[in-house]
């Protein structure tokens, strides 16, 4: 479920590819005009600054366009082969499905875990593991490779499954918290590396479809966890711990298929390890043809370029020292803040409990949660159409999503409050049964109960609407929109910094939701709605349109908006 996932699982594979290029020190960067005048960059005039940005991006665009033409010549001939499909299935089911499963597995048996009164910590600790994985991914993949890291990563799942089983045996929540932390590391590695690996083994013309396929597995994993968590399956007090053991199925599939039949990433073998023969064998296996010279030439040119310009990479400190990059970073952080403050984490993790608060029975609440999962899976098809539509831009989708989520979160809060009031009214009238004529009691008692039921089902409808709006914006274009804000030499650093901020924001929102809900009840959704309203108004002012625009045009638009804001506010940002 796109609205439920903390990590940047790229529907736009270029974002993952840029992040990996930064990891292996081979980012696709270009020599910039600033390298000759680094010492005087701060003192440039506004006119010089404009000329500088334009020249940087003209150079970057020329190299990028040349590389794209070479890539297309090699990649457009790509077709789905049996080897490629096997790798896709092993990664999709073994990694993406597993991530979705672990994200949804705490939802339906949440009432059992709440008895330990550690629900917020149990849910939030996964995010802490994800942050740690984000920091370790570079060194791990460089040492063990892409395929090797995916394989070894399954050991963490086995350890976590054992600890989760011990949590039930010894009735100790500490085992559960430790296991969720380990699962967080596993999920962080899977989310970051799966998209990179699939991007590097896929032909250029198939990468978009492959990215959608990987996301489908993730959503299906979440839905599967909800279904097996139903009380008539494994979601009761006696068997809930067995749900976690089901993770052994995707682990076994990946170890078997990817371990015995899947090749290492050709890009990793060629550029990082310098193993030309192994890279060629991998490409021949994936393409199922012997002639892979065009793709090998592309890798060779990429290696030559990486060696000549790798020292020009822009780090996080340099991003803050350059005004146009600093503003792009602010936009990226704003993007991630908007996604997380929308309440996606609470809706995803605590949706069953939210429905129970709306006075649905536990079983009906779990069925409603499964229905929301189905809606999210089906909405993917509609999202793909919107993203590819030539007349619908990313700015339009993002702002539509903000407004839609703002309205729907407000309606969710109202519907739950109405359901609770109707339920409380029923209880008050029932308590007077011994003092008032029973026939009158029956007449009065029927109306509030009916109203509460209607309000409860409206909460299901509004959460479904929320999920649809989230999918068409936050869930479909966030990663690609984010990558558009940065020039190629700063894209990896900027996206990594924004992703880290997203994890931190999600951790705060997820951990604070149970606390705020105890303090103010369903009114917590009004906080999310108010924040989304502010983000919507701000988005109309600061967000540029990036679809089908060259990097230099995007940067000029960002700079123009920055100058308009700073001139109006009379302050330097």
From TrEMBL:
<dbReference type="InterPro" id="IPR005829">
    <property type="entry name" value="Sugar_transporter_CS"/>
</dbReference>
<feature type="region of interest" description="Disordered">
    <location>
        <begin position="1"/>
        <end position="22"/>
    </location>
</feature>
<dbReference type="InterPro" id="IPR045263">
    <property type="entry name" value="GLUT"/>
</dbReference>
<feature type="transmembrane region" description="Helical">
    <location>
        <begin position="210"/>
        <end position="234"/>
    </location>
</feature>
<dbReference type="Pfam" id="PF00083">
    <property type="entry name" value="Sugar_tr"/>
</dbReference>
<feature type="transmembrane region" description="Helical">
    <location>
        <begin position="397"/>
        <end position="418"/>
    </location>
</feature>
<keyword id="KW-0472">Membrane</keyword>
<dbReference type="GO" id="GO:0016020">
    <property type="term" value="C:membrane"/>
</dbReference>
<feature type="transmembrane region" description="Helical">
    <location>
        <begin position="240"/>
        <end position="261"/>
    </location>
</feature>
<dbReference type="InterPro" id="IPR020846">
    <property type="entry name" value="MFS_dom"/>
</dbReference>
<feature type="transmembrane region" description="Helical">
    <location>
        <begin position="173"/>
        <end position="198"/>
    </location>
</feature>
<feature type="transmembrane region" description="Helical">
    <location>
        <begin position="365"/>
        <end position="385"/>
    </location>
</feature>
<feature type="transmembrane region" description="Helical">
    <location>
        <begin position="525"/>
        <end position="543"/>
    </location>
</feature>
<feature type="transmembrane region" description="Helical">
    <location>
        <begin position="79"/>
        <end position="101"/>
    </location>
</feature>
<dbReference type="InterPro" id="IPR005828">
    <property type="entry name" value="MFS_sugar_transport-like"/>
</dbReference>
<keyword id="KW-1133">Transmembrane helix</keyword>
<dbReference type="InterPro" id="IPR036259">
    <property type="entry name" value="MFS_trans_sf"/>
</dbReference>
<keyword id="KW-0813">Transport</keyword>
<feature type="transmembrane region" description="Helical">
    <location>
        <begin position="150"/>
        <end position="167"/>
    </location>
</feature>
<feature type="transmembrane region" description="Helical">
    <location>
        <begin position="454"/>
        <end position="478"/>
    </location>
</feature>
<feature type="domain" description="Major facilitator superfamily (MFS) profile">
    <location>
        <begin position="80"/>
        <end position="547"/>
    </location>
</feature>
<keyword id="KW-0812">Transmembrane</keyword>
<protein>
    <submittedName>
        <fullName>MFS domain-containing protein</fullName>
    </submittedName>
</protein>
<keyword id="KW-0175">Coiled coil</keyword>
<dbReference type="GO" id="GO:0015149">
    <property type="term" value="F:hexose transmembrane transporter activity"/>
</dbReference>
<feature type="transmembrane region" description="Helical">
    <location>
        <begin position="327"/>
        <end position="345"/>
    </location>
</feature>
<dbReference type="InterPro" id="IPR003663">
    <property type="entry name" value="Sugar/inositol_transpt"/>
</dbReference>
<feature type="coiled-coil region">
    <location>
        <begin position="282"/>
        <end position="309"/>
    </location>
</feature>
<feature type="compositionally biased region" description="Polar residues">
    <location>
        <begin position="1"/>
        <end position="15"/>
    </location>
</feature>
<feature type="transmembrane region" description="Helical">
    <location>
        <begin position="121"/>
        <end position="138"/>
    </location>
</feature>
<feature type="transmembrane region" description="Helical">
    <location>
        <begin position="490"/>
        <end position="513"/>
    </location>
</feature>
């Amino acid at each position: 479920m796109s609205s439920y996932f903390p990590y940047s699982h790229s529907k736009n594979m270029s974002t993952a590819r840029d992040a990996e290029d930064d990891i292996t020190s081979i980012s696709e960067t270009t020599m910039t005009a600033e390298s000759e005048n680094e010492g005087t960059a701060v003192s440039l005039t506004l006119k010089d600054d404009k000329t500088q940005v334009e020249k940087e991006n003209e150079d970057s665009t020329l190299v990028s366009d040349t590389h794209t033409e070479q890539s297309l010549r090699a990649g457009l001939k790509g077709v789905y082969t049996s080897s490629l499909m096997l790798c896709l299935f092993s990664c999709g089911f073994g990694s993406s499905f597993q991530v979705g499963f672990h994200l949804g597995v705490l939802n339906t048996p949440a009432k059992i875990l709440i008895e330990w009164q550690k629900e917020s910590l149990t849910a939030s600790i996964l995010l802490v593991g994800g942050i740690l994985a984000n920091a370790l991914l570079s060194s791990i993949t460089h040492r063990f490779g892409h395929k090797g890291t995916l394989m070894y990563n399954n050991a963490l799942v086995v350890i976590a499954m054992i600890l989760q089983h011990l949590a039930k045996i010894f009735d100790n929540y500490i085992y559960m918290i430790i296991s969720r932390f380990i699962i967080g590391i596993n999920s962080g590695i899977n989310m970051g590396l799966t998209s990179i690996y699939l991007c590097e083994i896929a032909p250029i013309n198939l990468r978009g479809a492959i990215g959608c396929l990987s996301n489908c597995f993730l959503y299906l994993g979440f839905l599967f966890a909800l279904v097996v968590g139903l009380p008539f399956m494994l979601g009761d007090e006696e068997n809930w711990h067995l749900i976690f053991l089901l993770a052994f199925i995707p682990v076994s599939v990946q170890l078997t298929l990817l371990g015995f039949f899947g090749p290492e990433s050709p890009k990793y073998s060629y550029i990082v390890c310098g193993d030309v023969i192994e890279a060629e064998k991998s490409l021949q296996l994936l393409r199922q043809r012997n002639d892979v010279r065009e793709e090998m030439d592309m890798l060779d040119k990429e290696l030559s370029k990486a060696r000549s310009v790798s020292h020009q990479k822009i780090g996080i400190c340099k991003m803050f020292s350059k005004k146009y990059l600093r503003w792009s970073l602010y936009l990226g952080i704003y993007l991630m803040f908007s996604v997380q403050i929308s309440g996606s984490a609470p809706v995803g993790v605590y949706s069953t409990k939210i429905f129970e608060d709306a006075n649905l029975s536990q079983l009906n609440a779990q069925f409603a949660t499964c229905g929301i999962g189905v809606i999210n899976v089906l909405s993917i098809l509609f999202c793909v159409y919107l993203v590819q539509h030539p007349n619908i831009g990313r700015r339009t989708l993002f702002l539509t999503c903000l407004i839609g989520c703002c309205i729907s979160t407000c309606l969710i809060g109202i519907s739950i409050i109405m359901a609770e009031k109707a339920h409380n009214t029923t209880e008050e009238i029932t308590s007077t049964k011994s003092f008032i004529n029973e026939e009158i009691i029956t007449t009065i008692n029927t109306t509030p109960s009916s109203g509460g039921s209607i309000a409860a089902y409206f909460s299901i409808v509004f959460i479904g609407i929320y999920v649809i709006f989230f999918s068409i914006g936050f869930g479909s274009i966030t990663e690609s929109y984010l990558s558009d804000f940065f020039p190629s030499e700063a894209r990896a650093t900027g996206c990594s910094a924004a992703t880290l901020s997203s994890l931190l924001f999600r951790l705060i929102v997820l951990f604070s939701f149970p606390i705020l809900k105890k303090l103010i009840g369903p009114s917590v959704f009004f906080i999310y709605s108010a924040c989304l309203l502010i983000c919507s108004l701000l988005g109309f002012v600061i967000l540029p349109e990036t679809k089908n625009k060259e990097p230099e045009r995007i940067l000029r638009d960002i700079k123009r908006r920055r100058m308009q804001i700073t001139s109006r506010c009379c302050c330097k940002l």
